[in-house]
Write a structure and sequence with these properties.
Elements (H helix, E strand, L loop, with lengths): L4 E7 L7 H9 L7 E5 L8 H9 L5 E4 L2 H4 L3 H13 L3 E4 L10 H21 L1
Parallel strand pairs: 1-2, 1-3, 3-4
Amino acid sequence: MPARLIGYARVSTLEQELHLQLDALKEADCKKQHIFTDQASGSKAERPGFTACLKELKAGNTLIVWRLDRLGRSLRNLIDIVEALKSRGVGFRSINDGGIDTTTASGEMIFNIFATLAQFERRLIQ
């Protein structure tokens, strides 16, 4: 099966819109049928769109998000997700977070820095 780009978009509330994220994912070459969405807090582990997205991902695929905080806010959760993807042979890329692409060594380092910043931002919001 050829490698695919699988997109995930999330907003926290029903008042927020997904358009900006969806447009960016399509621009990054994610096909509409390979984009999954949720309207739920990033701190919630139970997100139906994300669960479906994870089931769709196969070895050689890359999960793409608009920003790291769309995937989650907990540092532990972000690291667990990306490590689980890596163990399945799935890459991870964030469009707007300056070089996060876990298929490269430098991108993996940048992921770890941004995951820490996402955790910090969540603590400030609380």
